[in-house]
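Appendix B, example 12.
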Amino acid sequence: MNRVFVSDCEGPISKNDHAFEVASKFVPNGDRLFTAISRYDDILAELFRRPNYNAGDTLKLILPFLKAYEVTDEKMRGFAAKHLVLVPDVKKTLQHIRKLSQAFIVSTSYEHYIIALCQSIEFPFENTYCTRVNLDEYSLGKNEKIRLKQLAQEIAEMVVPEISLGAASSKDLDEQTRTIIHRLDEIFFEIAAMESGRIYIKTKPVGGAGKAEAIKDIVQKRRVMLSDLVYFGDSITDEEAFKLVRENGGLTVSFNGNQHAVESAEIAVLSRTSIVTAVLAEAFIKSGRSGTLALVQNWNHEELEKSQVSQPLVERLFHSDADELPKVKIITRENMKVLAEESAQFRKRVRGEAIGGLG
């Protein structure tokens, strides 16, 4: 059986949020700027559902501000290589999986980061999908730079917009959040009319529907069925990919995911290392969706020892945590809320409050 492994990058493979970290490094109050835009992104994708807007478009919206503060492609590449933080054991995990099947990374991350990652873990860049950006091809005038810096400061000083508990549409937002969203709309419409607005036209972040399209491209080029594919993700940018794979008989796994990921996937993983990824991937490659779900249903030492997963890998899993196995659960209506809360908190402990709290 020709089965395929596909994973998001930031979360299941690395602990970084490269775009957040770049903004924090090069833009004054860049952490608050990025967080506000990211939350705006979540609200537009989840509640407004605007045509042609995809989760992950934060990576497009932030670019004019990076350009205004003299961020170059060389700076992006150098920063990515210097600050790369991998999930423990991930290099061995991906090497193990690649011996058994075809493996791909589908990420919203900028290509600067994915190139650095692939070099570090010896993964073929041609087996990746990511957000292509060439900052150096754009030039900004003095007045435009000044205006962009003013707007960046304004956004950074805003109250970060929040999604009200139980909100199902834009009508459920409180008045303050509506006002903030309206002002952000005005800001980004203003930028779109600037010279730097060309960045918005040319940049196509691989998030939301973009990830689903990447998966369609993989199965078409590799001549496999979606039911032969397992997908690991962790955030709102993976929802469309999860939906596509799940509705067509493949397997979906949330790895230290936030609420969006847990509510969209079939299996929830809470783990500090990637060894469990190798175990689940091998189980899927050898026994398919049903066999993997059966293993997770009885996730214990005895069943793992009897499984088709190679015993050296199982032993590595047993010794990855001195106290107990990593938490791996089938997601049901009954446990979804609790698992989402546990996974979101675990995610913050593993990746830090700032990055772990992003959508």
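The chain has 18 helices and seven strands. The longest helix spans residues 275-297.
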